[in-house]
């Protein structure tokens, strides 16, 4: 299945990528274009790009039991005074909401756990559901 | 991402441009490790032209930090401003690194 070119309407932007780390750059490009068109602040742009990097890295790195090609869908939608980000994949269900916050300790940090801490800190809401083999994460960010 | 390197008074300054994320962290980290393994014992990494940094980017910085200290060298960051500074604060990474406001500050301190 070929991955798609990005598509957009007035208030949505969407891209389907393959489950490869390098594909995350195409999502960041979509966010940058969508954000520029709708005049997002730098704070919103960074929140979306970092959150998507963490989420997509998790899916691509840990979400599949095979080495096959899988599509991942990312959709951005303007909704009231928010931007909504939806990520859909067909990998193993993983609920980012369940990841523990990093312990605060004096020991040198590794990055484990901090990725999802970023997502929680940078966005205003998140929902996660798995149904019929499709995992769907929805993030909300106030503009 | 683009990396621009310059050596001033035995301090190697690495300026990074663009995104420091899952797609660029390996190239960035590999370059720092190469410099460290080549014996550069004083390195300043300037992040002022970085749009954002994700946990992959922090991991590369932490690994380079550890590699430098294992060789009794010093690695410092500068240009940690704006949204990048905010990410350092959210991730509680500010205390993990030597951080100076500017390249000049970093070079001055690392020469000592």
The domain tally of chain B reads: 1
- Rg estimate of chain A, integer Å: 15 Å
What structural class should be given to the helix and strand makeup of chain A?
alpha+beta
Biggest pleated-sheet summary of chain B: 5 strands, mixed
- Distance between the first and last residues' Cα of chain A: 35 Å
List keywords for this structure.
heterodimer; A: 143 residues; alpha+beta; Heat Shock Protein 90; 3 helices; globular; B: 112 residues; alpha/beta; Transcription Regulator spoIIAA; five-stranded mixed β-sheet
Write structural notes for this entry:
The complex is a heterodimer of chains A (143) and B (112). Chain A has 143 residues and is of the alpha+beta class. Helix content of chain A is 31%, strand content 29%. In chain A, strand 3 and strand 4 (82-89) form a beta hairpin. Residues 104-112 of chain A have low confidence and may be disordered. Chain B is an alpha/beta fold. Chain B has four helices and five strands. The longest helix of chain B is centred in the middle third of the chain and has 16 residues, at 55-70. The mean pLDDT of chain B is 97. Chains A and B meet through helix 1, helix 2 and helix 3 of A and strand 3, helix 2 and helix 3 of B.
């Amino acid at each position: 299945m070929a991955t798609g070119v990005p598509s957009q309407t007035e208030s949505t932007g969407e891209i389907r990528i393959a489950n490869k780390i390098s594909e995350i750059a195409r999502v960041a490009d979509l966010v940058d274009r969508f954000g520029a068109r709708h005049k997002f602040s730098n704070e919103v742009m960074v929140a979306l790009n970092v959150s998507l990097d963490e989420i997509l890295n998790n899916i691509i790195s840990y979400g599949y039991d095979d080495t096959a090609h899988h599509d991942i869908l990312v959709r951005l939608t303007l909704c009231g005074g928010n931007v909504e980000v939806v990520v859909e994949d067909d990998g193993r269900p993983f609920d980012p909401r369940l990841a523990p916050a990093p312990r605060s300790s004096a020991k040198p940090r590794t990055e484990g756990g901090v990725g999802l801490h970023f997502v929680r800190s940078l966005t205003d809401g998140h929902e996660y559901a798995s149904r019929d083999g499709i995992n769907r994460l929805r993030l909300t960010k106030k503009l | 991402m683009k990396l621009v390197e310059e050596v001033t008074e035995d301090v190697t300054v690495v300026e990074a441009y663009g995104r420091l994320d899952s797609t660029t962290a390996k190239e960035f980290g590999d370059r720092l490790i190469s410099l460290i393994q080549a014996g550069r014992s004083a390195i300043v990494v300037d992040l002022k032209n970085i749009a954002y940094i994700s946990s992959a980017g922090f991991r590369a910085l932490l690994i380079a930090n550890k590699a430098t200290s294992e060789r009794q060298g010093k690695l410092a960051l500068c240009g940690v401003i704006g949204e990048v500074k905010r990410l350092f604060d959210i991730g509680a990474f500010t205390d993990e690194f030597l951080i100076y406001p500017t390249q000049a500050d970093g070079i001055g301190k690392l020469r000592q």
